[in-house]
Design brief:
Length: about 475
């Protein structure tokens, strides 16, 4: 039996159930669905046709839902729960595994705005440093923005294309073909240095730059003089720094089945590396946040496509998880959230690296890189595509005679709104407008004693 859940905003997660009659159902699956989206459950009997079906919610029959398809339009909080189907054929009847979903309110990662990049060239990487986003791509193009909204295009001469960029030690450092390391303090004036090897990714600590690509890892204290480490049999695609450790991620062809396997290498000094390999997949992106390394990738096999996530505290011991859709090709961390991107599909977000939520973005085109800065995420892709998330704003509630809200996020004007509806807090009313010049900012709701309970949210008026 095949059971597929079509989740938020047209995204699709497929769950394969091995349910021959007489066997117990699989453990429950759990998903998050964004308020207002459509959810469709599809069931097909791959071997024996089903003669009768009945859908259930929380163990009770759903009246009138006796077909193999169950579609929920404009999902509300009341639609959350545990769904399963009772199917029967000539051999008997059996319950499917339970699929539970929770309904969550739309957040800033469900609202992405298309920005004018002023270039039609593909953009492959983006970073944030020195108070600005810097993205790089084809034809030596560099686009720069202080706020993620207004972008200025520049061109670095003699560069065919850039693959990667990072910020560290007061420098933007990028690699471009034909084999140049280029550096800049302000992303305006660039210095080129011939670099004999290909680089796919760059990262920096306070003392060291590390570059990875192909079979080499390179390290440098000044982005001028580089040390080389050959890691034969590996193909390296991503590097990140955190917790006094560099982690390089990619793929290996050395697993015992003769298949490509994920590989991670760790080092504290950029010279001595320890490797770990895992299942047959490829890692294309890695980042660090909350004391956690998160590496993403996927499978490119002919028989199956899926996103793949590995997490680790130390870069040595890893936990893995598969996600629906196609391969994930980049990940970034900011404001307590990991965000992973994929080619032409939805994004995924996670606060802890284990449970991931599908997020919509428009247009759903090819994204190549993502970075966080100044309170929002910026993703870049083909044909000069730049999209920016809504501001990531947090509200902490402090108890007392009146409700006190501590706001953290980008500076600027906000509208504070509230709702007194506990079951379905979607009818928001404005309380006040505030102009935040520095954060955290504390606001007191002196009318909070008039309600048995109250929900709050802050809406940025900058975008």
């Amino acid at each position: 039996m095949l059971l597929a859940l079509h989740g938020a905003f047209g995204s699709q997660a497929t769950i394969r159930l091995e349910l021959p009659f007489g066997h117990r159902p699989s453990p429950p699956e759990s998903h998050n669905v964004v308020l207002g989206s459509d959810v469709t459950f599809l069931v097909s009997a791959e071997e024996d046709p089903l003669l009768a079906v009945q859908w259930q919610l929380n163990g009770s029959n759903i009246v009138g839902e006796t077909s193999t398809n169950l579609t929920l339009r404009n999902v509300q909080f009341t639609n959350a729960g545990a769904y399963q189907i009772i199917g029967s054929n000539t051999w008997g009847s059996l319950s499917s595994a339970v699929i539970s979903f929770s309904v969550i309110a739309p957040g800033p990662l469900d609202g992405w705005t298309l920005r004018q990049s002023n270039t039609s060239n593909h953009l492959y990487a983006v970073t944030f440093g020195n108070g600005r986003f810097v993205a790089v791509g084809d034809q030596g193009r560099v686009v720069v923005s202080a706020d993620g909204i207004t972008w200025t295009e520049r061109k670095v001469p003699e560069i065919n294309y850039f693959t990667s960029i990072t910020w560290g030690q007061g420098l933007f450092v990028a690699w471009g073909d034909p084999r140049f390391i280029v550096t800049s303090q302000d992303a305006v004036e660039w210095t080129r240095l011939y670099f004999p090897d290909y680089v796919e990714s760059l990262a920096a600590s306070q003392e060291l730059f590390v570059a990875a690509g192909g079979w080499y890892i390179m390290s440098s204290a000044d982005a001028v003089t580089w040390n080389y480490t050959l890691v034969d049999s590996f193909s390296l695609d991503a590097v990140a720094y955190g917790n006094s450790t560099f982690v390089v991620a990619g793929q290996s062809k050395t697993n015992r089945f003769g298949l490509e396997a994920t590989v991670t290498l760790t080092s504290s000094n950029g010279l001595d590396w320890t490797s770990r390999s895992s299942e047959a997949a490829t890692l294309l992106g890695v980042c660090h946040g909350k004391g956690l390394f998160v590496a993403v990738g996927g499978s490119f096999g002919a028989s199956a496509h899926y996103g793949y996530v590995q997490t680790s505290r130390d870069g040595l011991t890893w936990a893995s998880k598969r996600l629906s859709g196609y391969s994930l090709n980049g990940v970034a961390y900011g404001s307590g959230i990991f965000v992973a991107i994929q080619y032409g599909g939805p994004m995924f977000s996670s606060t802890g690296g284990s449970d991931w939520i599908e997020r919509r973005h428009a247009p759903q085109q090819y994204l190549n890189g993502i970075a966080y800065g100044n309170g929002s995420f910026v993703a870049v892709g083909f044909d000069g595509l730049i999209i920016q998330s809504d501001p990531i704003v947090s509200l902490d509630l402090k108890t007392g005679r009146f409700a006190q809200l501590e706001l953290s996020g980008p500076v600027g004007p906000y509208r504070i709104e509230s709702s007194d509806l506990m079951e379905n807090p979607t009818e928001w009313r404005p309380l006040t407008t505030i102009d935040v010049s520095e954060t955290p900012y504390v606001f007191t709701d002196q009318s909070s004693t008039n309600a048995a309970w109250r929900f709050y949210r802050a809406v940025s008026l900058n975008r």
